[in-house]
Amino acid sequence: MDGSLGSQIDMSRVLARPDCKNDDNDKSSRPHKRKRSEGDATNPGGDVEEMRRITKLDQPGKVGVEEKQSWVAKVRRLGQNIDELHIARLTMAKQIEELKKEHLNKDNTIVERDLTILSFKDKISRRDKDIFHQQGRIIQRDLKVNEYKQEILDLKERNHLLMLDNRTLNELAARVVPVPQPRKPTYVPYPNPAIRNRSDYRHRDAPRRDDRFKTGRAAPPPRDPRKCTAPGQYGSNAYWDLGLCKMHFMDRAQCPRGDVCEWSHTPLDGNERGYVYMLGERGRQFLTLSDRILYKKNLAQ
Ligand SMILES: [Zn+2]
Q1: Where is the composition biased (Basic and acidic residues) (predicted)?
Q2: Which 3 state secondary structure label does DSSP give 244?
């Protein structure tokens, strides 16, 4: 801008010179020239007569040397002005080119900024969409939370009603006379006899008492087939051995060891009797035989 301003100053300085009006290249000087010619028409005896005088048309031989020199100097100055004007014109054209380039660069910068702004706007719009989507999800969650809260209230009310019903039913049940129910066996062996009668069947559902031996020993005493009833005699195997005294349960004679017998004299309880009964024909035969023997022994006492 400083260069262009300087060139403008130069141009104004050059144009301000009175000799500049005679430059044919400067269009602004033409009206002045025309005015001057008009002035010549209104004022005869001006430059035309002077020119005639200089070119010796009217008065040959009367032109002075100083006048010639002054005209030569004027022509030189005019030439110099023309050169300066030409240079100023070139400088102006160059500056215009630079200004155009600068303008183009600024346009490019503006376009880049516009593109950046557009990309930012695009990002903002996408974020706005995300925010809108998230807000929608939040609203959905709030609705679900409200539904759950309502469900909790409904369940609480239902629970309260059920508790009232339960209390009423308990009061009614307290008034009803209990009816004896048929006894169901708690301990049931495997229903398939092919599996139940195997020697490796473990009798997992059999009733078990820790005090089945009088001695209270955890490990059963060594088996003496003459003293201990083999479990096979009531349909069981070694995995459910009641440790029954053979003489007490299977013989009509009294066991001489009595209360200090190392084998069990304790009568079978209901669970054990039920389980032995379900073990099969052997179990039922054992129960019948032992009941008969024990009954007779009790009568004898
Ligand atoms: Zn005994």
Answers
A1: 16-29, 197-214
A2: strand
